[in-house]
Structures are given as structure tokens and as C-alpha cells.
Design goal:
Structural class: alpha/beta
Helix content: 40-55%
Largest sheet: 8 strands, parallel
Number of strands: 15
Strand content: 5-15%
Strand order of the largest sheet: 8-7-6-13-12-11-10-9
Distance between the termini: 56 Å
Radius of gyration: 25 Å
Number of helices: 18
Length: 591
Amino acid sequence: MILFPAPRKIEYGEGAYRMKHCYAGSDLPGFYQAIRSGAEDVCVSLNPLMEKEEYRLEVSVGGVMISASCDEGIFRAATSLLQLIRRQKGLLACMTIEDKPEIGRRGYMLDISRGRMPKVETIKTMIDFLASLKYNEFQLYMEGDCFKYAAYPDETRDFDCLTPEDIQALDAYCRERFMDLVPNQNSFGHMYTWLKKPNFHHLGLFEDENDVPSTLNPLLPESFEFMCNLYKSLLPHFSSEYVNIGLDEAYGLGRYQIEEYCRERGKDVVFMEWLNKLNDHIKENYGKKVMFWADMIYNYPQSYHMVPKDAVALEWGYELIQSQRMTDHCIAYRDAGVRYYVCPSTNTHGALAGRMDVTTFNIRTCAELAVEYGAEGLLLTDWGDGGHPQFGVWSMVPCALSGQYGWNTGKPQDGESFKADFIRGAEDFVDEFVFGGAKVSRLMYRMANYYLLEPERVHVCTMSAKHLTLPVSETRYAHLFDMKDSGDDFYFDNVTDYVRRVLTDIEKIDFDERMKREIRLNSKMIILGSELCKVKLHPQDSVGKVDELVAMIDEIVPEYTELWNFRNYEKGIDKFLKHMTDRRAELLALK
């Protein structure tokens, strides 16, 4: 592809134009400003009939012409032009590009709450990457100790995390790139980090006082006051007209202290009452519109009329089956007049390297449903379950692919090609933008499919990655699989051998050493998980492997720590390292 994301329409002419100035080293905002200031090579024509992000880019033997209706369109044209300059080294083939996005809101959401809290400079690097892919929305998911909430200063007094000033700086950084930084504060489920604290425990839903709840009690006035305090601390620092208030996976709904009330009113009604209460407060006090995860209501279409008028439902699903089920939900939202996004996943959480076959299907399906049934946005989610042990480098190709689909979904899937050109285009883009031209992404794609060699397919994770977080004595994971049913060592021998072979090929390539170390370390963690699966299959016969596996852990821990601290705040690293130290002790206990 000459451009990525691939434009909607491109026609080639005769000849070429040599740029008089070298812009290849310019950053995107600087290049855009040069164009707006009257760059000698580039003329700008305003056409009020064009849509906000629509542009026309003409390269002729006499120069470059950009047509757009406003600054957003000029910026998207500048994004394409800068990529052409870099790829063609300033000698531009004559062409005409007519382009505009197929999906209005194209976003990426990064979990910064369950372990990994990236530093400001790390986040800015990600924003630059997203801007080059024509994203226009970015969300930082918060559920716990990741922001200096003014209402509760004691909770983050002893460690570094994002400050109000950091958020304001990031907000401005996004605006310079025509990207909307949307606050994302969970407000119902996923409140474990807060509710495990003695001062907040009583706000949760639980059966026993010793339980650690994860869901707020929506009937308590103190719960509403608590959420108002979080919003007051967070929302004024964002210029966005939206706020994502979460509300997903509120597993306490209908149980414990509110069971009888939910039985009388209906779980869906109780959910809607809480949604509307939060919505009204946010609208009245901050003038913002709410977004919310839709998993708690999509089975209750009779209640869709209770969704606040301007609220946006976020339809998420990360597996093959979930992606297929989205069709009915999208039709229901459309028919009920509910605004909504579709939300696929990078699928790196719970897998260390991702599960690329699932990821590419998931992103494509979501994007095509968005176009067919009128979703307002495509939001790619990047979660941090299990302490967020996966490094961000694994999210680059999924981000690039979602950038393509958000801008231009191309022809509908025909059942044969799997739109391989989009996948290859995403890989080429990442190789160019992230790896300095080194061909790494195809090998990372192969690495991320190691899970296909495991004996069981597991919901949003892999067996090898999951068993790093489970005690050696535990063979069962929820209702999804039991190692006792997984056959013999054959499968995991294949996983270990496969990962080592792909890693050997990656090691031969010369590219950024720190990124190579991140890829290497996560690959070694997959091998460790695979070998732990074999220990669980026959622990008494694994005593001879204990020293080798302990040595692997001793090698992983300091490397993980050093790599983590380079890009992230120190707080949160212990969430995954505790799994490592626990597995080490359990292995030694086998001797």
C-alpha cells in the first residue's frame, strides 16, 4: 500500500513532483502548521461543501494542492502527505486522493489501572502513533490508584502517578493532533481497588464482611457521593464533551444487599436508575455526555428506552462468538435509537503476545458491523488484566489494523481473503513507524498465534499465560478448562519449541534494542507458562525441572523490573511480580 490507512479513492497520473523542502523529519503537528502557514510546496483551498475530516490531495508536476472544509480535513491530508514524502523520499508520484473516514469516531483505550501505569512521555509516544493512523479519540481507563484525586489525596500520597497537570498536558497534546482525550472512570463494577480499602469497603456489595467486593452498592447515598468526588477530581481537567463512566461487569447487581430490591424492580431497571443518576449529575455539573459499557443491558432490549438521550452505549466483545453475536445487538440499538460504538480488543491481555487470528477477525467484524448498522464509533480496547505483564509493543499491529478499519473498511469480507492486504499493510506500517524499517511485525504475528498449539481455546487468554497467574496446585481455571483434561506434554512441548524458533528468527533482526528485549522477555514468559502447564500435568515427575524453571524466574524478574521502570511508574509492578515469586516458592516446595 502506498498509504496506510488506505484511502477511499486514489488515481495516478503521469510524472512526479520533487518537494522543494525536506519535511521527512518533521513531526506531524509541525508539518501541519507549516502547511497552514503557507508552505511553498503546498497550496490549501477551502471547500465548505466537504465533510469535517474529508480532504482532496492532488500531486501534479507543478506542486501539491489540498482541499478541505476546515482544519480537521487539512490535518488528515497533512497526515497522508507526510507519509507519502517519507515513503517516496520527497519525489512524489502524481496522483489524486479523495478521502474521508468511514466511521466518525475512531478510538483507542488503554488500561492504566491494573498494574502498568505509563509515564506521560510514554503516553505521548502512543498518541503520536495513533495520530499517524488518523485516530481521533483516546481514552485512559481508570478504576483505581492511577490518578491524584484531590478528593482522596491520602490514597496516592506515597507513590507517583498521573496528576491533574499531566492530564491537562496530555489533553493539549491530543488537541494539537485533532484527537479527543476522553476521561474514562469506572463507576459501578471493577471497583475492587477502592473497595478493598477499609475506608471504602462499606460502599460495596458483598455477602460477608470479610469479602472483597468489586461492585458499588448503587442504593447507598454514600456511593453516589463517592463517585461525585471522583468526577469532581478528574473531569474538569479534560476538554472533551464526553466521559466514559464504565459500568461493565457489575457482578454484584441483583445480589447481596440489593437482591430483594432488584427482584422487585428488575436488575435492568436498577442498572438504568444508576446510569441515569450519574448521567444527570455529569450533565448538570460538567456539561458532558456519558459513554457506558453495554454488557449489563444488551440482554434487556425492553429497557433501551431508559438510556439517557445523549448517552453512548459501548458494545464490546473480544472473541469469535462474541463478535458474531454483536449483529443482533447492533440492530437492537439502531432500532431503539440508542447511540453506540463497537469495541474490539488488541487481545494482548491474558495472552502476553496477543492472539492475532482472533484479533484480526474481531476488529474486522466490529468495523463492518459499525458501517452496516450505523455505529458512531470504533473503540479498540487494550486491557491490563493480571497485572498488565504484556509490553505495549504487542499492541502496535492491532492498533494499526483498527486504524485502517476505522478509516476505511474496504470491500466486505468475501469469505476467502481475510483481507490479508490490510493485515500486511498494518505490519508494514508498524515496521516503518515503530521498528525503523526492520521486518519484525510478521514474526510477532506468528509469535502471537502460539496459542493455536495449546490443547484448549480459552476465553480472552491462553493456557500458558493464564497459568503464570495461578498456583501450581490449581489445575482448573473457572469453568473453561482443567489441566487434567489436557492430554500429555505433546501440546506444550510444541508451544515451547514454536516460541523458541520464532524468537530465534526475531533475534537475528537488528532493531531497537529495548523493544527487542521486551519481545524477548514476554516470549520467555510464554515458555515459562508452557513449562508450568507440564508441571501441573504431572507434578511429582517434574522435580528434575524445578531448578531450571526457578532459574528462568530469577532471570525474568530483574529484566522485567528494568524494562517496566523505563516506560512506567513503579507503582503496580508488584501485581505481576507476586505471581512470579509465588510460582518460584511453589516450585521449590515440590523438591
